[in-house]
Amino acid sequence: MEGLRYFEEIASSLDNEEIQAWKQSGKRVVGTVCANIPEEILQAAGLLALRVRAPGIEDTANADSHMHRINCSYSRSVLELLLSGQLEFLDGLVTTNTCDHMLRLASELEANGRFPFVHHFSMPHTLGTSSTEWFVMEMQKMIEHVEASFGTKVSDRDLCESINASDRARGLMTRLNELRKEDPPRLSGAEYLNVALTGMSVPKERFCEKLEALIPELERRQPEGKGRPRLMVIGGGCDSPGFIDFIEAGGAWVVADGLCFGTRYYQGYSDEEAKDPILAIANRYAGRLACPSVMNAFDHNHIMLTQMIRDWRVDGVVCARLKFCDHWAGFRKLATEALQQDDIPVLDLEREYQTTGSGQIRTRVQAFLEMICT
Ligand code: SF4
């Protein structure tokens, strides 16, 4: 479909034509390595916040000599990007402490990168009032560092404009997500992921223009494939539309997700009327589906996932987690037990970051779909 081509193109690489145009106009780009880093701060300083992905990295041989292979392949692939010179267009980077793999990656990026700006954002690992206060303090520290490094001032008004830009994108993605509730959905899970990845790779205004043009096109679309099993995909480090396509090729639709590169990035809004924009940002990050590294968030996530399963009429959940990712392995165990009690089957797939499919995955997905359909 013509309107989707732009999104496929942007999602297929880390650097893209919009970033080049942005840089040519004298503006700067800062990478972020996790969905827990608030992009609103960077945007408020006039920077483009780019979620770092490593599409096209097949081999992590260089990175493997710095980080042991028991670190997840997302973290090693990002280091490979750095070591092969593919992050040189960035003017800065924000790292975080999602997990030990991410901490190892952060130290390697700091040691081997030549970025004019590197900031470490320390995310809280619990939900609650003190964690929100922590998040607020971390944002204040990030603002001070951004101001000093880029010679700019971030006012409340800048923050409010940045919140509006992110919320506009979130609102459009919510409309897009609604189109996945239909049977058949108006767009496949792979197409949705291409759009979602674009929104974290280009300026928000440009993304919203393109998405506003796409949605009416999709609303007029008459797709085939009614009655196929409807799946939700959850997991970490999954930014591969090819992998989602591979699952759907088995005869299913991926109609919902709980991915850091998908719904988690867009879920919820900041209170645009709030007196304190920093607190409004923190509350939005705390209210959405939480990262499995957040230790007391299982019940919060279970309630949200169950509601999504109901609303999108999901028949089964695929947990696609990266090898050696303990956070998602732990979450998968708890989620499998809880969802199976609600009669929702769960398929556990362990994969590498670059995986788009394999004979073993095909067999397991087919067996899962047959089980759902009987
Ligand atoms: S996929 Fe898991 S191990 Fe890898 S960076 Fe994310 S949370 Fe850490």
Write the layout of secondary structure elements.
Layout: H1 2-11, H2 17-24, E1 29-32, H3 39-44, E2 48-51, H4 61-64, H5 73-83, E3 92-96, H6 100-112, E4 118-121, H7 129-150, H8 156-178, H9 189-199, H10 204-220, E5 230-235, H11 241-248, E6 253-259, H12 263-266, H13 277-287, H14 298-311, E7 316-322, H15 326-341, E8 346-351, H16 359-373
Parallel strand pairs: 1-2, 1-3, 3-4, 5-6, 5-7, 7-8
Helix pairs in contact: 1-9, 5-6, 7-13, 8-10, 9-11
The protein binds iron/sulfur cluster.
Residues 72, 74-75, 98-99, 101-102, 236-237, 322, 325, 327-328 line the site of iron/sulfur cluster.
Q: What is the overall number of helices?
A: 16
CATH architecture of the domain at 16-156: 3-Layer(aba) Sandwich
Order of SSEs, N→C? Answer: HHEHEHHEHEHHHHEHEHHHEHEH
In terms of per-residue confidence, which ranges show pLDDT below 50 for 5 or more consecutive residues? none
Cofactors, ions and other ligands in the entry = iron/sulfur cluster
For the sheet with most strands, the description reads: 4 strands, parallel
- The number of E-state strands comes to 8
What is the radius of gyration computed over CA atoms, rounded to a whole number of angstroms?
20 Å
